[in-house]
Amino acid sequence: MPLLEIDNLSVSFTQYKKGFRQHDLKVIHNLTMSMNKGEIVAVVGSSGSGKSLLGHAILGILPNNANVSGTIKYDGDELTQERLAHLQGCEIALVPQSVNFLDPLMKAGEQVRSSVKKQDALGAQRTVFEKYHLGQHVEKLYPFQLSGGVTRRVLVSTAVVGEAKVIIADEPTPGLDSAVVKEALSSFRELADNGSSVMLITHDIGSALTVADKIAVFYAGTTVEVAPVEDFHGRGELLRHPYTKALWRALP
Ligand code: ADP
Ligand code: MG
């Protein structure tokens, strides 16, 4: 049974001009996809196409002018706002694309520890900090005191420290050096091998192919094709959609 099932999801935004309601801007259209336990599914598509929005819709963190239809199920039951309030952070975690997701008034160590269910939150936080080469002094720093790369590593740490069942990693590694990128991707693999599902959102199919099991191709607001990575490593004749074929042809 899939761990996360998205059925016929649509998201649009109500637009206003000079206080008057205009037409709705539809960004996600009738999107259906699912993720099994133990799987890394990369959602690949161009910038501005609605990939972050998909992640935010799963987490139930959309702006007030968003209209949502369709269903999202986690572990067989609908993911309501009420359920999300219990699951967010521990069972379903986000590595946000925007660094603005960090609480500006909370020290880095506290942010990471707030996602840990275990008794020994400090131990878990220190283990993950060590993994991402974050010195112990970083614990006591506020977000405004962190460099871009350190902020990214704190965001990844916050998402992986609680060993969540579903991780939505939205462009998790921009600007990080390749050793840290490798470390982050191998943490996702490790979580998946222990039964979690990871959605790796990226515009870069090359990096997706190094770690994912499946590629969900996101085009014009929906997933037009979900293909196993092997299809991209072969001659590509198994790929069906023209945009998928274009991505495949553009591979080095
Ligand atoms: P991606 O992550 O694929 O680069 P996003 O999910 O960030 O794309 O954004 C998709 C589109 O959603 C954007 O082009 C933007 O026009 C629209 N959008 C996002 N938030 C809002 C909002 N609050 N109001 C209106 N449109 C929005
Ligand atoms: Mg995005």
Summary of the model, kept short:
With 252 residues, the protein is α/β, with parallel strands linked by helices.
Query: Would you identify the regions where 5 or more consecutive residues have pLDDT less than 50?
Result: none
What's the number of extended β-strand segments?
A: 10
Question: Strand sequence of the main sheet, in spatial order?
Answer: 6-7-8-3-9-10
* Element string (H = helix, E = strand): EEEHEEHEHHHEHEHEEHH
Q: Calculate the terminal CA-CA distance, rounded to whole Å.
A: 36 Å
Mean pLDDT: 93
**Helix share of residues?**
25-40%
Q: What multimeric state do the chains show? A: single chain
Spell out the key features of this protein.
single chain, 252 residues, alpha/beta, four-stranded antiparallel sheet, 9 helices, 33% helix, binds adenosine-5'-diphosphate, binds magnesium ion
Your description of this structure?
Belongs to the ABC transporter superfamily. It catalyses: Ni(2+)(out) + ATP + H2O = Ni(2+)(in) + ADP + phosphate + H(+). It is an enzyme of class 7 (translocase). This protein has 252 residues and is α/β, with parallel strands linked by helices. It is 33% helix and 29% strand. It has 9 helices and 10 strands. The strands form 2 sheets. The chain has a 6-stranded mixed β-sheet with strand order 6-7-8-3-9-10, with helices on both faces. The longest helix is centred in the last third of the chain and has 16 residues. The model has no long low-confidence stretch (mean pLDDT 93). It binds adenosine-5'-diphosphate and magnesium ion.
